[in-house]
Every structure is written in C-alpha cells, then in structure tokens.
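Appendix C: a fully annotated inverse folding record. The material below is reproduced so that readers can follow the format used throughout the book. The structure is listed first as tokens, followed by the designed sequence.
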C-alpha cells in the first residue's frame, strides 16, 4: 500500500470502527511484527505467501472467537 503501512491502515480502521475484525497479511512475519500488530488491535495475522485454506482457517478462528 503506497503511503500507508499495514499498522497505519489497522489504526485507521479501528478509529472508524473499534469493533472491526482485521486479519493482517504480511510478508514480514517475524514474531515481533506479529505481536505488535496484535497488540495494536489486529484479531489475527497470516504470513505471506499463504494458501487459501490457511486464510480460511484464520477467518474462521477470528469469527468463532466471539
């Protein structure tokens, strides 16, 4: 995303709707990056590249957490 990091996008979405459920997909899947995004409000994280079934699992996990 030119001009905006994933974390900045997450923060903007949370300002619009604090209840939004965001799963971040990133090629920077280091544990520190993942932890920081979860602390910032992401409900899940999936590292790139990923397979459709892994994305589906992440979505189901987030939706089932309610």
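Designed amino acids, in order:
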């Amino acid at each position: 995303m030119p001009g905006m990091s994933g974390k900045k996008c997450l923060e903007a979405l949370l300002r619009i709707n604090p209840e939004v459920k965001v799963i971040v997909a990133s090629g920077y899947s280091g544990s520190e990056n993942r932890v920081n995004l979860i602390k910032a409000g992401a409900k899940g994280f999936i590292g790139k590249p990923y397979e459709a079934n892994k994305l589906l699992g992440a979505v189901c996990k987030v939706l089932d957490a309610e």
